């Protein structure tokens, strides 16, 4: 036989198909057609056999019909005229007594995808909608969607749409689901299928009859329906309750997404649903499918944003297996960081330490980064592990450890002494540019504490000609300038050589411009240079704060059961792509002036009087109109710190003209609530979140001094202007006499008189901009009531 891929092979197949003797032998004829299909699947152009294959479709053999239809649908676009010859055979098959033949003919008639054949297809499809066989109705329903997709601009036939709506009550569940899909496609420009109360309850009652993907389709469409009453809402939730714990992860995810949509105004129900899906999600994490495990881990990270303690007791389920792929290991490590607490921190760190020597370098570096993130709360234990890893003398491990130490001292400055001791001799093991940049940044900021800093820097400067990374050169310039300010005698000569090379010989314009900037800055004087390079750093008191506030479910509800969680990358995983911590931006959409966004059009209202919170009112002021609190627009930690320090500076200059210009109001009160500093962070966050008060940072319970930083936006119901309120709760727990002296000094400055025993009081400091004393007093009343409520709860 001729070569399979040549023209001779196609000619041989044509002669065989045209041979009357072969056509008379049914088995030989079918085997020849099978050879044509095999050649087509191997990439051979057999379109020249189209006319012979058209003749072959006129048979009673179903297997032969299927093979021929596969060929015709593949090459119909290349032979539109010859495709007309197939229509008569297909229309004849649509009237065959065998339902399998009828459904096969309808399916392939629509799969030809030729606009010229639409007029011949409509009548069989209409008849197929009323066919007595369910398999034919399934194909006919989807055939109308294919027909509309073929001619999207054609006018929609109202009778067909009505027929499809009536088939939503078809006894076959597959026909019902196919109708939903077809109506979604046909009525796309009108918003999809119209969902009303009768259709909703009909779909919910038949949900269990559908297969897994049919249930997902029904649940997705039902998100458009809005219950009219609360009783109807809870009836729907009751029907969905069984699907919420379905053993099939797609059904569970679709049901939970519908739950979140329906319960957007019922946070308590949403929290209960989070508890219910814990088991199915943990089961999905143990699935044999890697893709399923990865998707479950990504969605678990979403849930932990709103309920950090949801899976705390099941942290061992997220330990990595040896044979698991790197992307699953890295996601599991991100989840483990979220689950760390006082009880399991030792075991988690020991587990992560084992991952640091993984054969996959990305996994090892991710484990080291995870240890660094835990170090923000448990710095001593983590620094001990990180310094031990430096002793392994492996390039990628040393680089990751140095980068992690750089990020750690930026957040926790109290760790700088241990980090400076560990830096000795690290420069020899750093081969990648990110690690060298991290080391240079540490030498520049803490160079006065590292004895070998000038000598290490000289090695980098001597090799600057062979340095390929622009980022390392830029960091080297900044480090040399910073080290010159604290150790001028040792670095003056090497700084001059570096500036000369970068200005005279460097070809990269960014490096050259930065060198010129520093050169001209030195001409302005040492003090001016010091102001630029050694400006204000982050408040060290913020470094001891741990945790993050729980996000409201509404922030991520719309992305659940979509691809968004799989694409999201947390801020901590991006640290390897940046040069130094100064470049971190917590807010994905930074604002130049926060005051421009204070007048928000959408405010989530919280009426104190309706919840009983506002019954506790401050005697010094009355709130004439209801006060609303809102978390929008969100405030980043950097923006909070800037505004807080700015307000504190204005408060220190109270009475000057600057106070009026800044339009900032400050208020200091003491609230007696001895149990609040000992309550759990979860209880405090939940209580504040319920009233739209965002806790930005907090210290652990039973830790002195105990601090909580919070913010909210206030607005009177009858006003369009909103204000931003920043707050600090402080409990020092110091001796009564020392505290009394401080309070007396504050009373003299504030001109206020305080009475009573303040041994167990929490100091509440509020800053507001722009000024609105009524709103500030109203917020203080709400906050005081919350603190009293938390203090009254039994531990």
UniProtKB/TrEMBL annotation:
Region called Disordered, residue ranges: 572-597, 736-770
Sorted keywords for this record are: Membrane, Protein transport, Transport
Compartments in which it is found: Endomembrane system
Chief location: membrane
Q: Its topology with respect to the membrane?
A: Peripheral membrane protein
Composition skew (Basic and acidic residues), residue ranges: 580-594
Q: What SUPFAM superfamilies does UniProt report for this protein, alphabetically?
A: ARM repeat
Q: Does the keyword Protein transport apply?
A: yes
Q: Which Pfam families match?
A: Adaptin_N (PF01602), B2-adapt-app_C (PF09066)
Annotated Gene Ontology cellular component terms: clathrin adaptor complex; endomembrane system
Would the keyword Transport turn up in this protein's UniProt record? yes
Q: Name one GO biological process term.
A: intracellular protein transport
Could you tell me which residue ranges the Beta-adaptin appendage C-terminal subdomain domain spans?
Answer: 627-788
User: Where are stretches of biased composition, namely Acidic residues?
Assistant: 742-754
* Gene3D superfamilies membership: Leucine-rich Repeat Variant, TATA-Binding Protein
Transmembrane stretches, by residue range?
Answer: none
User: Which PANTHER family does UniProt cross-reference here?
Assistant: ADAPTOR COMPLEX SUBUNIT BETA FAMILY MEMBER (PTHR11134)
Q: Which family does it belong to?
A: Belongs to the adaptor complexes large subunit family.
What is the name attached to this protein's record?
AP-4 complex subunit beta-1
